[in-house]
Amino acid sequence: MADTDSVHVHRSVLQAIAYRMLGSMAEAEDAVQETFLRWHRQDQAQQLSEIREPKAWLITTLTRHCIDRLRAAKAQRESYVGMWLPEPVVEEPAVEPVDRLELAETLSMALLMLLERLSPDERAAFLLHEVFETDYPDVARILGKTEAACRQLVHRAKERVKAGKPRFTPSRAEQEKVMEGFKRAVASGDVAGLAASFSSDATLYSDGGGKAAATLNPIFGAEKIARFFIGVRDKQPEGARIEPRIVNGSLGYVVTLGERVLQASHFEFDGDRITAVHIVRNPDKLKHLM
Predict the structure, then answer these.
(1) Whole-model pTM?
(2) What's the topology of domain 172-289?
(3) Which Pfam family name is an example for this entry (predicted)?
(4) What is the pLDDT of residues 26-79, one digit of tens each?
(5) CATH topology for the 97-166 domain
(6) Which residue from 53, 60, 150, 228 lies 20 to 30 Å from 35 (Cα-Cα)?
(7) Which CATH class is domain 1-79?
């Protein structure tokens, strides 16, 4: 049994699970907080002595809470204005730790968007088993299902996710090389050079949530995306700064104006080309970056 304070050492793994489940930093933080509140209620009811594995209890409670939130959010997502993208996770550029490469890939916008197509149970089973390396008996216990049912959930999820994963994820240095060419082409207005930075079937997604200017539908194709970037190049407000950042595990940038974050842009790479761009402009999804 753990005391009521020592369980907070598990906050980081709970936060990681919750974000990948919900696609929202704010909702993930709320879910983790609710999990700890439930733990404290157990403490007040003097029931902690019955909990032999606090971490397992916390993950189970959190996962089930996230599943409930996903089911409740379904109608909201369906009525969302324009394209729905996950809230961005933004870090300062730094040397890329080798042991973080695989986990960083699970933060990609493309994967999180694919997870949106799964049922809440499929999403939970896939993340627990494939990302957080939870054994099937524990996945079954967390979800309250049989091991066979959980294996089937993971199998279906893997089949749906596999089609959207990049064939090759380049290193940080290779991403930087691609982004340098991207920035030069944007600065010079070179549409052909900019289009060469993208794969022929690249896609751009933009999320304004009806609260900021954004494309309502995806933009398909290298040349159309290149023209989009050239078109918006000179439309940034005076004083806006474009700052390189790590966005959801890969190179990207944020646009700031004073203390406000106006936009976070995430790029997906496959070899030496950009395959997707995800632009988050909904101010509600940028509050945690300020």
Answers:
(1) 0.85
(2) Nuclear Transport Factor 2; Chain: A, (3.10.450)
(3) Sigma70_r2
(4) 899 999 999 999 888 876 655 655 666 888 899 999 999 999 999 988 777 778
(5) Arc Repressor Mutant, subunit A (1.10.10)
(6) 150
(7) mainly alpha
